Backbone:
């Protein structure tokens, strides 16, 4: 059985669509009524990408001000490794007798 | 030249609401993941837009971390979808009703 994403042809619940549209209307009403003033923007000769690199490693000398993000950088490293290990742990088969079934139903039942 | 902040926020709200609608209405787990990505990237648009608005790079750097978290979330999510397909021969999220089977 294939289960690729398909266009939703079944009857959709209109309440769900109305909920999403109502959320958008509420957000849009808030956004169009608030006053932001003119944007500061970045100066045309500032090196944005280099400044991002300086901010990632708490280094001085960036053109554009930013907070130092070294702690978050190291924490995201640990999180990515944990996610990688978790994904491998989830995807690994317990019984290794069939190398792969090609995604087909091999008729062995799914009760394991 | 400069686009007003309201348009960035409206685009972000629209993308977020599309993601909410996808999560509410669809039953395919892969479409679920895509909808969650839409919502995360709507937040990224806000971060980058306000970074430009205030002339401060913190928002842009933080959106990089949001993307890394989204990548980690997708890795775990696709692992869960693999297990779901193995056990139920499909990726319909309404099939799995219990934590263990």
Residues:
């Amino acid at each position: 059985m294939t289960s690729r994403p398909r266009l939703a042809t079944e009857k959709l619940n209109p309440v769900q669509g109305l909920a999403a549209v109502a959320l958008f209307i509420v957000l849009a009403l808030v956004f169009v009524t608030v006053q932001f003033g003119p944007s500061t923007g970045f100066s045309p000769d500032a090196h944005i990408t280099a400044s991002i690199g300086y901010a990632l490693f708490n280094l001085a000398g960036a053109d554009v001000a930013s907070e130092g993000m070294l702690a978050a950088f190291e924490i995201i490293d640990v999180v990515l490794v944990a996610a990688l290990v978790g994904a491998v742990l989830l995807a690994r088969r317990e019984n290794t007798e069939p190398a792969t079934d090609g995604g087909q139903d091999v008729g062995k039942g799914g009760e394991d | 030249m400069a686009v007003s902040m309201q348009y960035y926020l409206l685009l972000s709200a629209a993308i977020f609401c599309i993601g909410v609608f996808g999560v509410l209405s669809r039953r395919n787990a892969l479409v679920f993941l895509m909808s969650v990505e839409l919502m995360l990237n709507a937040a990224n648009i806000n971060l980058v837009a306000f970074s430009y608005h205030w002339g401060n790079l913190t928002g842009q750097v933080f959106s990089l971390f949001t993307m890394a978290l989204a990548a980690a979330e997708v890795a775990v999510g696709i692992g869960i979808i693999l297990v779901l397909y193995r056990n139920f021969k499909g990726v319909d999220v309404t099939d799995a009703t219990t934590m263990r089977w």
About this structure: Chain A touches chain B through 52 residues (CB under 8 Å). The CA atoms of residues 49 and 62 of chain A lie 10 Å apart. Chain A has a mean pLDDT of 82. Residues 45-93 of chain A form one domain.
